[in-house]
Amino acid sequence: MASQPTLKQLRYLCAVAQSLHFGKAAKACFVTQSTLSAGINELEQTLGAALLERSNKQVLITDIGQKIIARSQHILSDIEALKEDAVRAQTPLSNPVRIGIIPTIAPFILPRVLPTLHQDFPELQLLIREDLSENLANLLLQGELDVLLLALPYPVNNTTSYHLFNDPFVLAYPTGHPLGKVKQLRTRDLQGQDILLLENGHCLRDHALEACKLQSSQLSLAFEATSLHTIVPMVANGVGVSLLPEMAINEGILSGTQNVSTKEFSERGVWREVGLLWRAKSPRDSEYRLLGEYFKNNSSTQKA
């Protein structure tokens, strides 16, 4: 009987397709590079087709490789759905949930929610992955994650979103800055200011600009950081002003920091929407809604 492609081989192939790098793909699959390479070679021999073009500098996907990868992603997604079907009838939130959370939410919501979550659902094992939205979305579609906690809207095909709350943006500025004297702060007051934002790739940057109805070309971007905790001391030292999510301030991101003041905007809508995202046809839809309701009711007090 002729050999058949294995699920492991399909996972290896999809991992390479995502990163176009054998080393990164092997790390994502928790195997050695030689093991991953051998698995893909065996898959190519089984199918009788070259799926990848390899060189020392890059990895290219052949035309037939593109088709096989697309089919493989569907197969892996169906396998995940099959496993989820097996646990659907059991007690809600009694099985592992792999959740991806973006860095501008994770440290500010988890400390409030996790202690009581484990008390109320003692059998739940929450497996947390912190990463940028784009990376988390790819892992969700590949079946490597079950649900995402991120800022909405985020464009991912065939997914269901669940609104949790609106997280207002608050202006953080060096104490004594002219904006501190503005009685009714409006987003237009930011034009021409030295703004400290997260670097490209962080959706908080895009949501902040969108909420304030600003374009990057309208601003003087004094500094681009990799985390909010890097931005705070820059504000304290007078480099510029920044837009911080209220949840970060409520969780003490400014604690122990001198020379930083905050001011709320007088306009409505200067916020980001925080919510959950999962695959549209997941058989655990009701469980994720239950999880969303729990996050909504037990996170810090935000505007609904």
Outline the structure in words.
- This protein is α/β, with parallel strands linked by helices.
- The chain folds into 3 domains: 7-87, Winged helix-like DNA-binding domain superfamily/Winged helix DNA-binding domain (Arc Repressor Mutant, subunit A), CATH 1.10.10; 93-165 and 273-298, Periplasmic binding protein-like II (D-Maltodextrin-Binding Protein, domain 2, 3-Layer(aba) Sandwich); 167-271, D-Maltodextrin-Binding Protein, domain 2, CATH 3.40.190.10.
- 40% of the residues lie in helices and 22% in strands.
- The protein has 10 helices and 11 strands.
- The strands form 2 sheets. Strands 3, 4, 5, 6, 7, 8, 9, 10 and 11 form a 9-stranded mixed beta sheet that branches. Strands 1-2 form a two-stranded antiparallel sheet.
- Helix 1 crosses helix 3.
- The longest helix has 26 residues, at 63-88.
Question: Could you name the key traits of this structure?
Answer:
D-Maltodextrin-Binding Protein, domain 2, two-stranded antiparallel sheet, alpha/beta, Arc Repressor Mutant, subunit A, 304 residues, 10 helices
Describe the protein's topology:
Blueprint: H1 7-19, H2 22-29, H3 33-47, E1 52-54, E2 59-61, H4 63-88, E3 97-101, H5 106-120, E4 126-130, H6 133-141, E5 147-152, E6 159-174, E7 194-198, H7 203-211, E8 220-225, H8 228-236, E9 241-245, H9 246-250, E10 260-264, E11 271-279, H10 285-298
Parallel strand pairs: 3-4, 3-5, 7-8, 7-9
Antiparallel strand pairs: 1-2, 5-11, 6-9, 6-10, 6-11
Helix pairs in contact: 1-2, 1-3, 1-4, 2-3
Question: Quick gist of this model?
Answer:
Helices cover 40% and strands 22% of the residues. It is α/β, with parallel strands linked by helices.
